[in-house]
Design brief:
Elements: H1 12-44, H2 49-97, H3 101-107, H4 109-133, H5 136-151, H6 153-200, H7 202-207, H8 211-237, H9 239-263, H10 269-311, H11 324-334, E1 346-353, E2 363-370, E3 375-380, H12 386-391, E4 401-406, E5 409-410, H13 416-421, E6 423-426, E7 435-436, H14 437-441, H15 450-459, H16 463-467, E8 476-477, H17 486-499, E9 504-508, H18 516-529, E10 534-538, H19 542-545, E11 550-555, E12 558-563, H20 565-571, H21 573-582, H22 585-589
Parallel strand pairs: 3-10, 3-11, 6-9, 9-10
Antiparallel strand pairs: 1-2, 1-4, 4-5, 7-8, 11-12
Length: 590
Amino acid sequence: MKSLMKYLKKYRIEAVMAPLFKMLEASFELFVPLVMAKIIDTGIRNADLPYIFRMGGVLILLGVIGLACSLTAQYFAAKAAVGFGTALRKELFDHINHFSYTEIDTEGTATLITRMTSDVNQVQSGVNLTLRLFLRSPFIVFGAMIMAFTIDVKSAMIFVVTIPLLSIVVFGIMLITMPLYKKVQKQLDRVLQMTRENLTGVRVVRAFNRQKDETAAYYAESGLLFDFQIFVGKISALLNPITYVIINLAIVVLIYVGATQVDAGAIPQGKLVALVNYMSQILVELIKLANLIITMTKAFACAGRINSVFDTKSSITEKVTSAAAAGRKEAAGEQSDVSPAAVPMVSFDHVSFAYQGAKADSLSDIHFDAMKGETIGIIGGTGSGKSSVVNLIPRFYDATRGTVSIDGLDVRDYGLKELRGRIGVVPQRAVLFRGSIRDNMKWGKADATDEEIMEALDIAQAKDVVESKQGGLDANLLQGGKNLSGGQRQRLTIARALVRKPDILILDDSASALDFATDARLRKAIREKTDGMTVFIVSQRATTVKQADKILVLDEGSVAGIGKHRELFENCPVYREICLSQLSGEEVNQ
């Protein structure tokens, strides 16, 4: 929790003023029992009605001033806590956005969402209550004890015994419940993950008629969460009754001792009432403190989970050198006898790659060059490593061994912004954002004109999608493009990548929902209208890659063959098997 307090720096004044005004409110509260004692011992005993009214006015004044201090403290505490939560959430979101695919795969989407929502909200609530009560409650508890000593030392000794006993109970329960709340939050992650999986895959669940199975599994996980929360709730619930018992026993003893003092004439009745009021104030404040402790326990558990995300560093690191251009110049100097056209746009130099935690490499000794303007087809069976190859180019992952280069320079020597600014990626899953078609296209290039957008849409065979929508480019899309068909979504995501006119275009099985005719027109348009663009087409369709300048055939993470369609069909058994399973004899020879 301490490491997160830096997000309160901008709210130092509010963080000081909130507890300060709360302590002022508490100070005025501590005078109330003394005023009541005066009313009893002087006003009521002497039947002095004007004195009673004057003291009543003092009570009202103390209440009004206390209310003003309380409202002021609430305002400052809320402002500081909300500002803290905003800064923390923003920093956490920014940190997560710097994660590579490796960290996102490891942490899990559901866990990261819980950290950014539930955990941050819990810590924010903890900060709010801490600013309001952390100093106020102890101040009243010990202030009441000190005020009791000013009334009667013998009776005040009851306070000296009661307060440490209550402290042991409160902090003991806190130490027990803190690890249990961590367990509750971990189970909440699991429930959220199941919720997300079911909502995302609702069509699959219904297609296989698995609603009852998924509902049963969800009830089982929710039941565990329920059981954990009930268990920790029972322990936390002990706090109030135990404190009530201790305080009420203390009040009984106090009345017994105080009554003896009153009978002996040591103290008047009003002061005994004041002592009982001070003990009642302690009870109220300890209940508040107990609730604060429960909230703080949750906040500490959540803060630890948030810190674990901050402690996770991205495996993709940028070199301090911002001069990728200088690096290219240096690389060109080393190859001064080689013309720029001879330098590969993309080069894989004996590259191997393994996912984190995997026992074996997903890619082994991948070696090939892609020249400027070439179209590279990548084909292979399921799990052969096709997507893994293209994910290494924009550094979504880093190669375990070997080097991936662009323009003769290792991709790790580029700044990520510069590197990914040269690459247009269309992932397997077509993702569109809520908003207009124009807004989605400008993800590719923020300052793109309508002419540039329409040109990209034309190449992606998506012009008819825009023209069929009321409003054209201003037509609204639902989250994820749910109001479009699969093929329409894919064509729009391809257009989005083409808007920026990248040097390298990666189509990662992004035309799987297109019919063969549209797919053929798309590939023809990309070939003819993207002068000098190096294109990588990942597909399981032989028809999609067979016209490529170079075809990379993968088999279980290794290169089974590189070349053109005809030579691979004759010399590569893996490629021949794929073609024979998909193409007719006439299509093979085209």
